[in-house]
Amino acid sequence: AAAKAVEALNGKKFDEKEWYVGKALKKYERELELKEKHEQSMKETVDKFYGANLYLKNLDDSVSDEKLSELFSEFGTVTSCKILRDQQGISRGSGFVAFSTPEEATRALAAMNGKMVAGKPLYVAPAQKKEERKARLQVILHNNGSTVNSMLYNTVW
Fold first, then answer.
1. CB 13 within 8 A of CB 19
2. Which end of the chain is more exposed for a tag (fewer CB within 10 A), N or C?
3. Alpha carbon distance 119, 115 (integer Å)
4. pLDDT tens across 56-115, in order?
5. From CA 5, how far away is CA 147, in angstroms rounded?
6. Sheet containing 53-57: order of strands
7. Is 56 helix (H, G, I), strand (E, B) or coil?
8. Average pLDDT of the chain?
9. Residue ranges of the RRM domain (predicted)?
10. DSSP letter at 63?
């Protein structure tokens, strides 16, 4: 009977509010469930834009989100554009531009990487998921570890 009630009432609207009906959970169980839903939602968003999102760095402080969007819009539909900023709102010199298709992002990458923007050469690369970036850095460090170690130990102080 309880399962039927959950099935019948969960997600229904009453007084213009959507109801959540489910098994009673302890607070930590509910928090875990919400966290998993949030992570899944974030993963779906990232996957949706995978290949269509570019990472930018070496941005001049004078470049705004609007200016960046304007610069990249000639290559296609810019779905989002964000310059990373510190707590005081000052540019960190990097950001992201997302396009509606990976093809648009590829065109923008080819045309804009190295282009002078506000007197500085712009670095443009495909945006990577944090896990991919960490794994790639681990491989680089592992493969070059002997080189890095020999440089450190052979340095005359």
1. yes
2. C
3. 9
4. 999 999 999 999 999 999 999 999 999 999 999 899 999 999 998 889 999 999 999 999
5. 65
6. 78-85, 91-99, 53-57, 123-126
7. strand
8. 84
9. 52-129
10. -
- Whether 60 contacts 119, CB under 8 Å: yes
As a whole number of angstroms, the distance between CA 71 and CA 111 comes to 11
The DSSP bridge partners found for residue 17 are 14
Q: Outline where DSSP puts E strands in 1-156.
A: 13-14, 17-18, 53-57, 78-85, 91-99, 116-117, 120-121, 123-126
> Cα(11)–Cα(13) distance, rounded to whole angstroms?
7
The helix/strand/coil state of 35 is helix
Count H helices and E strands in the chain, helices first: 5, 8
Six token digits for residue 78: 């810019």
In order of start, what are the domains of the chain with their CATH numbers? 2-47 (no CATH), 50-132 (3.30.70.330)
